[in-house]
Amino acid sequence: MTLRPTDRPSTARGDDDRREPIDEAGDGTGPGPRDEDGESWTGGRPDAGGLPDSTASAGPSVPGADRFVSAVAVDGEVLFAGPSVPAVLGVERASLAGENLLDRVHPNDREPVSDALSAVATDRVVTHRLRHANGGFVWVESVVDEELAPEFGGRVVTARRVDSESAFPERFREFLEYGTDLVTVVDGDGRVRYESPSVEEVLGYEQGSTVGRSPLGYVHPDDRERVTERFYRALNDSDATPTMEYRYRTADGDWVWLESRTRSLPADAAVGRLLINSRDVSERKARERRLTDRNERLDRFASIVSHDLRNPLSVIRASMEMAQLKGETEPLERGERAVDRIDQLVSELLTLARQGSGIDEPTEFALGAVAREAWDTAGSADARLVVGADARVRGDRGRLRQAFENLFRNATEHAAQGGAGGGDAHATDGGEDAPLTVVVTATDEGFLVADDGPGIDPAHREEVFDPGFTTREDGTGYGLDIVREVVESHGWTIGLRGDDADPASPDDVRVPDGACFVVRAPDPDAADTGEPWIDG
C-alpha cells in the first residue's frame, strides 16, 4: 500500500468549496472571484494582463490562479471553462471548451476521474494529473458537484492545483524520494491520497497511479480478509497500530511480500487519515520458507534415523543379554560398545536435527542450579564439579542443561583418553591420583566451563565445534556441535579461552588451565525486550 504528499492541497478541506464565480458569458466580463474584503481579483482573468508564467513546475503567484472552474458532462466533454484555465494549464479557455477532459487527464488517473463524473459516484473528490500546455503534468484536486448544473447540462468541477512546495518542505520530499520504504496515506474512506516515489522501484507502479483507489484491491485474495479487518480497525481506531504481513500485486502481475505498520494521523491533518509505512520483505519470507523446509527435512531424517536404528539396536541388546546369561560374554564386548556408540550417535543426531525449532518460551533461572542438574546426569565419579559465581539467566533451561551435559562429558571422556586434541594423557592440576575438576562460573560477559584436564591441542582449536570432528576412536563428533547450536540459538556466542580477550572471572574463583569454553551473552540492559540474557 502506498501514498504521496503532493496528492493533497496544503490547505484544509474547508477551503475546497470556495469556487470562483462562473463567468457564464464566457468572455471574461462576468464577476470574478473576490478576496475576503470583497475586492475583485483581476490577476486570474485572461484579460487582466500580467499573467504568471504557467509551467508544469511553477506554482501560482496570484490569488485565484491556483484553481479553475469548469462544467463537464458525464462523458467528459468540457461544456464551460473558467477564466483561470490559462493560469493553471497554460491553454486558452476557448480551446479547452468542447474538449474531452479525460483526454487531458493522465492515463493512470482517468478511471477515478471518470468515476467521479458518473451519476452513481460515491467519491467526488479526486487527486489527479492534468496535461499542461508545455507537455508536462500538473497535480490538481478536483471537487465535482453532486447535482447537475441545469444551465450547462453537466456538473461543475473545481480543480485546485496542489502546491507540493508549501505542503512538504524540500528536505522531506528528498527523504521520500530516496527512501526504500513505501509511504502511503489514505483518507477516511480508505482510498489512497499519497504514495511515495519508491512505489516505482518496489512495485513497478508509476507514482500517483493508485491515488483515489483502495489499496485492498491489490492485496492477494488469500490475505485480503485478514488485512481488510486490520486495515479498517486502524482506520477507525486511532489507538490501533497493527503490523501486517501480506502479499501485494505488482505492476507486472507478480506478488511481493510487504510488511506494513500503520499509524493514525491527527484529526485535523489535511493530507489524510492513516499513514502506512511498508517495506518489501520478500527475501526474508523466502529465507523463512527455506529454513522451514530445512527443518522439516531434518525432522523427517531424525525420525527415520530413530525408527530404523533404534529397533534393531533393541534386538541386538536383547541378544547380548541372553548371551551374557549363558556365560558367553567375551566375544560380545566389542559389539556392546558398538551398540552404545550407535545409540549415542542416534541421540545426538536427533538433538542436532531439532535445534532449529527456536526458543519458544524463555524463562529465568539460576546458572548454578542448571549446572548441578546436568552434572547429576553427565558427571563422573572420578571428577568433581565446582560452581563459582552464580548468575541469573533468561533462556531455554532444558537446552542449556543439555549444553552443560555435553561439555561435562567432553571433559571427563577426554581426560581419560588424553585430551580433546589428541595430546598425551597427564595428571590433573590436583595431582596424579586427584579427581578431574570441572569449574562453572559466571563472568562479567556470561559464563565459562573449564577443567584441569589435558586441554585442547592448538592444532585443533579451529575444528573443535565442527560437526563430526573427534579425536576419540569411539567418539561421534557431534557433542560440541550441539553445544554451539544451543548457545547460538539463544543469540549468544561460544569460543575457547584465548580466542578473544579472556573474560574477567571473580577473584575468589580459580579457573583451571585445561580446556576452557567461554560463553558471551548480553546483560538484561543490553538485550532486546524478551531476548535471552545473562546477568552475572
From TrEMBL:
Q: Which SUPFAM superfamilies match?
A: ATPase domain of HSP90 chaperone/DNA topoisomerase II/histidine kinase, Homodimeric domain of signal transducing histidine kinase, PYP-like sensor domain (PAS domain)
- Kindly state which keywords UniProt assigns to this record, in alphabetical order: Kinase, Phosphoprotein, Transferase, Two-component regulatory system
Please list the residue ranges annotated as the PAS domain: 69-124, 168-238
Phylogenetic classification of the source organism? Archaea, Methanobacteriati, Methanobacteriota, Stenosarchaea group, Halobacteria
In terms of InterPro entries, this protein maps to: HATPase_C_sf, HATPase_dom, His_kinase_dom, HisK_dim/P_dom, HisK_dim/P_sf, PAC, PAS, PAS-assoc_C
Domain Histidine kinase: where?
Answer: 304-525
Q: Which organism is the protein's source?
A: Halorubrum saccharovorum
* Record domain PAC: where: 242-293
Q: What protein name does the entry list?
A: histidine kinase
Give the compositionally biased regions (Basic and acidic residues).
Answer: 13-22
